[in-house]
């Protein structure tokens, strides 16, 4: 620890400075040996990090841009501290700017770049930090940033494809729900007033529609409260480890979309795993980091189990087979890679295979979901048509 001191010597001259000792007693003893009588002796307070603004985040695009800039600056030979500070000064995102300023401050104190980034896990993930640590140890920091740029751009492309694929089905489902509520709250009550003028029996479909409309008119506030409470309760439950595990285990079992999410998460494991093995990270550490790159807790849990099997002396192929996550083709590719010593290359081929499957399924997602949406819309239209027009036909027949 460090102490700041003020003292005077035998001639009365003032001395100020800093001592790096283990205790206050050692500091006093050192000053007396130098002939200095201490006037004040205080423990130096460590520099505190700049306070980060809350409720802000760094987007994937901003992280890609930062990685790309760091690749260019590291390749040019510019000192890392100067590069970080320069990027911080020109950043528009206040959270990212403060993060980079903290990283630059920590670098100036002699810490490594990977340890400085590790102090900000909300911005830089385990994979990001692991790759930077390997780049520092091998002296190829620019290549580490280049690989991270490629990985993050693939992540961005996949997210964009998923968003585009679910946009049309989501719009159709929202439109259907909006139509049901509008018809129930505004259309059906007017027809009910018309039907009440005639003392005639109503068909079953009409009675169901009127009953549903009356329920919506009387208890819409209750439904709204139940919906809000359900959303809040679900978010709290899914924030727990048990809830997240239950959600992620069942979401990959959904028809159509489940297989796509499964392949996306397997790609997020295979590609980073290959990157880290090629970079020289030990296989146990690489599995732990790559497994947590998956956004699915259920898949991540089984992938981490691979490490436990390997620690008990099992080989990679048997550990992968025990997870029941890899297909027979994938297991054969892993076995070839293990025998040939080219596991990284085989894992990249697995990731490329899954990427192609995801691309194909996402392009055909709308076509796969469209028949289901058409059936749902047809059923709703049929119910509305039978409920509204059957009584009108009966009334017109009675009038003639």
Protein topology:
Elements: E1 2-8, E2 14-20, H1 24-33, E3 37-43, H2 60-76, H3 80-89, H4 94-108, H5 113-118, H6 126-138, H7 141-196, H8 204-239, H9 241-251, H10 257-278, H11 283-291, H12 297-311, H13 316-323, H14 328-340, H15 343-363, H16 365-399
Antiparallel strand pairs: 1-2, 1-3
Provide the descriptors you would attach to this structure in a database record:
single chain; 400 residues; Receptor-associated Protein; 3-stranded antiparallel β-sheet; 3 strands
Account of the protein in words:
By secondary structure, this protein is mainly alpha-helical. Among the domains are: 2-43; 60-152, Receptor-associated Protein, CATH 1.20.81; 257-363, Receptor-associated Protein (Up-down Bundle). Helix content is 74%, strand content 5%. It contains 16 helices and 3 strands. Strands 2-1-3 form a 3-stranded antiparallel β-sheet, covered by helices on one side. Strand 1 and strand 2 (14-20) form a beta hairpin. It is elongated, with a radius of gyration of 32 Å. 25% of the residues are buried. The mean pLDDT is 80.
